[in-house]
Amino acid sequence: MAEAFIVGAVRTPVGVRKGALAAVHPADMGAHVLKELVRRTGIDPSAVEDVIMGCVSQAGPQALDLARTAWLSAGLPESTPGVTIDRQCGSSQQAVHFAAQGVMSGTQDLVVASGVENMGMVPMGANVQFALDNGLSLYGEGWAERYGTQEISQFRGAQLMCEKWGYEREDLERYSLESHRRAAEAREVGRFDAEIVPLAGVSHDEGIRPDTTLEKMAGLTPLREGWALTAAVASQISVGAAAVLIASERAVAEHGLVPLARIVQLSLVGDDPVYMLTAPIPATRVALHKAGLGIGDIDVTEINEAFAPVPMAWTEELGADPATVNPNGGAIALGHPLGATGAVLMTKLVHELRRSGGRYGLQTMCEGGGQANVTIIERV
């Protein structure tokens, strides 16, 4: 099987819902990172064979195949097609998988994997509003026969995880505080500078709260009475985009590209859709087994902090060193622009491996429907 290499990875700052980035059209936001990816890698854009873009709320300004619109909005060649995909929060991580699989199959040589989500302009759930407004089921009769009419939501799933693993509110808040501390330190010392392309006058991630405290978190109202969850221990509603260029060995040689990392393993696993957020645990076990690696071989992990119990349970179950997990903070501090987050995390992972000199990196995230992607890469 052919090898696939990451030869470029760039992202916007992650903006807050009512910040400056919220006014940027999603197509223009996507265009911004696509143009920068082309500029940084020096690739002839006409050689790119496809643009695969993750986006969850494909409604309004994010409808009509955003990948194609963003590429053309960037002024790039009409000959390159684009497709927009939805694997819920893992959409642009799946874009990386599809791009790498195209290269590893030998049928493609240069593919862009990207993601965009403007949750300030297109609210979460905008693409399901028609069903809700018209009294239509989101799941259908077959689902009801199998799972009944119980609540299916990421919020309930996170609370169920707290109950299963015995996490109290104070445990979650301590984790959240550490996420902000790590992210604030990373921003202060410039660890994100090489991966970020400024946009709309914003050059740094906006959601980090270096002055937050356990006392401030303790004053927040739980998402539901009796729950351990508050807004402080959940990912932020955000705005952002990212793009990654995947190349074959032949393309690297022909275009004079510089590999940053090699794709080692691509795995995808489903788990309980009611718990929804637990799939990264079995998915990581599958990926490590197939790669012939142990958790101790992984130097850096990026796992999406949709809610604090997700990385907490993952770290506990896998026996990972907490220092290697989200070393520069996660979505609790940095934000979670849904369909863009997978590509954002991959961009962070590639740059952190190169900065730290680590060999293997692992990325995973929970996804709607009880799914998880796992990507293992090796620094070149």
UniProtKB/TrEMBL annotation:
InterPro entries: Thiolase, Thiolase-like, Thiolase_C, Thiolase_CS, Thiolase_N
CDD domains according to UniProt: thiolase
Alphabetized GO MF terms: acyltransferase activity, transferring groups other than amino-acyl groups
The keyword Transferase belongs to this UniProt entry's keyword annotation: yes
Domain (Thiolase C-terminal) ranges: 259-379
PROSITE patterns per UniProt: THIOLASE_2
Active site per the UniProt annotation: 89, 336, 366
Keywords: Acyltransferase, Transferase
Coiled-coil zones: none
Superkingdom classification of source: Bacteria
Stretches assigned to the Thiolase N-terminal domain: 5-249
UniProt similarity note: Belongs to the thiolase-like superfamily. Thiolase family.
Protein name: Acetyl-CoA acetyltransferase
Annotated gene: atoB
